[in-house]
Amino acid sequence: MKTKNLLYILSFSVLLFACSSSSSDDLSNPDPDPIEKVTYKDNVKAIIDSNCLNCHGNPTNGPSNSLNTYDLVKNDVDKIIDRINRTGAGKMPPSGNLSNSAKALIQQWKDDGLLEE
Ligand code: HEC
């Protein structure tokens, strides 16, 4: 009789633990999307640095606009979104295209309010 009671208590606590641990996961991470807000420092800078700065550095190597600071990228965001979504004349970068996820991140950055960090 005592062993049976102990078993009940044991299985009940296992259940309780399983439930409480999964609900605390939900609380600590209510949004399954790993990126909450897109920022220049965390997300955008790396894309620009590796795909654009060999021409759009300061000084530039052909184009008239540098894209090597937060302010410059922010001021040009509409032109940038236009150019990276083109497939023909004037597309940026001139050879190839950014990945869809990189394009989406830059659009998301604008939608989130062009945060610096
Ligand atoms: C191989 C060199 C090169 C690379 C790499 C490059 N660009 Fe350009 N970009 C140019 C040149 C040259 C121009 C000027 C001619 C034109 O407007 O198409 C230009 C023009 C632009 C313009 C228009 C500027 C204006 O004032 O009208 C934008 C915006 C732009 N690039 C964004 C980008 C972005 C964003 C990237 C990276 C994803 C990039 N470019 C990568 C060479 C490059």
TrEMBL record:
Record-linked InterPro entries: Cyt_c-like_dom (IPR009056), Cyt_c-like_dom_sf (IPR036909)
Signal peptide: 1-24
One Pfam entry name: Cytochrome_CBB3
GO molecular function terms noted in the UniProt entry: electron transfer activity; heme binding; metal ion binding
Ranges where the Cytochrome c domain occurs: 43-100
The entry's keywords: Heme, Iron, Metal-binding, Signal
Name used for this protein in its record: Cytochrome c
Species assigned in the record: Seonamhaeicola maritimus
Organism taxonomic ancestry: Bacteria, Pseudomonadati, Bacteroidota, Flavobacteriia, Flavobacteriales
